[in-house]
């Protein structure tokens, strides 16, 4: 077996901003695992919020290179490095066996998915303009995190009157902020509020009956945090970069469903190679947020075909 590790930068269409900052490029980790005949590919996005960088993710993979090249699948911590390797191995096994990854995951088919489209954090006027340009999309996700949050949501609602809305605070609110804004968000037709409080402070949500369902993102990485989150949230956002790959993501989804939680399957800003394995997890999810490639200026060859907000299943030339 041969392990190849590289890093890549993909230009974003314009600028992408959340409560923590802005970026104009998506920096991804790209992994190939080859048996000499077949090559499996995986992609992931290290996230500074979780103490990851491209360099640290590469170092994690270099530390297990000998195991991988000896045909041993290493145990890795949850995160981007593990995700890239896990997805590359799924892809390799699919190519070796001729059995599509979705079938190996227990699915009979892989259906097209309707994804949310994310509106970058900006002024209310600018976010209203973004909403107007995307008003025909069935689901918009707004990044918030500042004193003008309600004005932002109102501007989006005015310019996209028939669209379902998700609000994502990326840990940018306090409990007092949430209590003040949540009734207004319900009035404006928001169907979900994602990660309002900081992950280490979300115990404050215990006993709070929010008028809009709450979704855990930064608070939940793997099944290890699920019991904690089940008492505070009604939905969980599963991202392969958090779980450490498709294997744990599938297990987490089933465990969340067993607890009666709604499931969102999300992503980082990345190419279609990151979205392809996530589409397996997203089958039957309550919310799908796999718009990463839609936010890029260009995508990888053989990228997912997108019609409006509908993602088609990946071609074998891409993944799986």
From TrEMBL:
Keyword terms: Isomerase, Magnesium, Metal-binding
Annotated source species: Asticcacaulis aquaticus
Gene3D superfamilies registered for this protein in UniProt: Enolase-like C-terminal domain, Enolase-like, N-terminal domain
EC number: 5.1.1.-
Family that this chain belongs to: Belongs to the mandelate racemase/muconate lactonizing enzyme family.
InterPro entries: DgoD-like, Dipeptide_epimerase, Enolase-like_C_sf, Enolase-like_N, Enolase_C-like, Mandel_Rmase/mucon_lact_enz_CS, Mandelate_racemase_C, Mandelate_racemase_N_dom
Cofactor comment: Binds 1 Mg(2+) ion per subunit.
UniProt keyword annotation of Signal present: no
Domain of life from the UniProt record: Bacteria
Protein name: Dipeptide epimerase
Cofactor(s) demanded: Mg(2+)
Domain Mandelate racemase/muconate lactonizing enzyme C-terminal: 124-215
């Amino acid at each position: 077996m041969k392990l190849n590790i590289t890093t890549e930068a993909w230009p974003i269409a314009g600028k992408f901003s959340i409560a923590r900052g802005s970026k104009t490029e998506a920096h991804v980790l790209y992994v190939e695992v080859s048996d000499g005949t077949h090559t499996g590919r995986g992609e992931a996005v290290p996230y500074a919020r979780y103490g990851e960088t491209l360099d640290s993710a590469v170092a994690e993979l270099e530390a297990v290179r000998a195991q991988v090249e000896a045909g041993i699948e290493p145990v890795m911590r949850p995160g981007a490095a593990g995700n890239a390797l896990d997805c590359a191995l799924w892809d390799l096994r699919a190519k070796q066996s001729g059995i599509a990854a979705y079938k190996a995951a227990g699915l009979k088919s892989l259906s097209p998915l309707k994804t949310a489209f994310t509106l970058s954090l900006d002024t209310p006027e600018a976010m209203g303009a973004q909403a107007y340009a995307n008003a025909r999309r069935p689901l918009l996700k707004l990044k918030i995190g500042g004193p003008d949050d309600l004005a932002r949501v109102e501007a989006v609602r005015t310019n996209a009157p028939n669209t379902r809305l998700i609000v994502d605070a990326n840990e940018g609110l306090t409990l007092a902020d949430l209590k003040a804004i949540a009734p207004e968000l319900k009035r404006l037709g928001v169907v979900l509020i994602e990660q309002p409080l900081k992950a280490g402070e979300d115990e404050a949500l215990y006993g709070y009956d929010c008028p809009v369902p709450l979704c855990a993102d930064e608070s939940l990485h793997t099944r290890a945090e699920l019991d904690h989150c089940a008492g505070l949230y009604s939905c969980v956002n599963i991202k392969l970069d958090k779980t450490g790959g498709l294997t744990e993501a599938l297990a987490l989804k089933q465990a969340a469903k067993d607890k009666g939680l709604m499931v969102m399957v999300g992503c980082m800003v990345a190419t279609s190679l990151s979205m392809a394995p996530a589409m397996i997890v997203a089958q039957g999810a309550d919310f799908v947020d796999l718009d990463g490639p839609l936010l890029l200026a260009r995508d990888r060859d053989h990228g997912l075909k997108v019609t409006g907000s509908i993602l088609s299943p990946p071609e074998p030339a891409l993944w799986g």
